[in-house]
Amino acid sequence: MEKKGDILEIMNLLPHRYPFLLVDKISEFKEGRSIICQKNVTFNEPFFNGHFPGHPVMPGVLILEALAQASGLLVFKTPSLCPPNESLYLFVGIDKARFKKPVVPGDSILLKVVMKKSKQGFAVFDALATVDNEVAASAELMCGFKELPQKK
Fold first, then answer.
1. Which of 25, 29, 104, 134 gives the lowest tally of CB atoms within 10 Å of its CB?
2. Residue 15 domain-assigned (yes or no)
3. Whole-model pTM?
4. Interatomic CA distance for residues 124 and 139, integer angstroms
């Protein structure tokens, strides 16, 4: 079943906030299998001040972070994958990262994430970021839960 989500749902599921929330919309969701999200890149992004002045390019590590946030949304929207206690879902590894096309202000990035495998709070994803149907970045991402200490 496909489900979509807006920024309010995203903010309810992810702990990230401005300037580090890098997903604006969920376009497509297949529980436990895949998600497609969108990130609208504007000139007002704080990283453009220094990367690079006069030639703004979104840092590749932030494209990977946006993909990792999309993977978190896939997991948090799949009840069977969420841990019973309060946890952080952390980026724990990247393999096969490739950058093919610069992302610049005005671009809309489609963040496509497919779950490859999941076991005991750890998951591996195939991740693809595209702009205008051209690959901007791709990687295999690994993420896992870290349980937070119980509040007293």
1. 134
2. yes
3. 0.94
4. 10
Q: Is residue 2 part of a domain?
A: no
What's the domain count of the chain? 1
Encode pLDDT of 55-105 as tens digits: 999 999 999 999 999 999 999 999 999 887 788 889 999 999 999 999 999
Q: How far apart are CA 67 and CA 74, in angstroms?
A: 11
Cis ω for the linkage preceding 79 (within 30 of 0): no
**Range list of H helices, 14-95:** 60-76
Kindly report the CATH number assigned to the domain that includes residue 141: 3.10.129.10
Catalytic: which of 32, 51, 91, 101?
51
Q: Identify whether 57 is part of a domain.
A: yes
Angle at 120 between CA 70 and CA 90, to 5 degrees: 40
Q: Does the annotation count 55 as an active-site position?
A: no
Range of the domain at 24: 7-147
Using the 8-state DSSP alphabet, how is residue 5 labeled? B
CA 73, CA 28: separation in Å to the nearest integer? 11
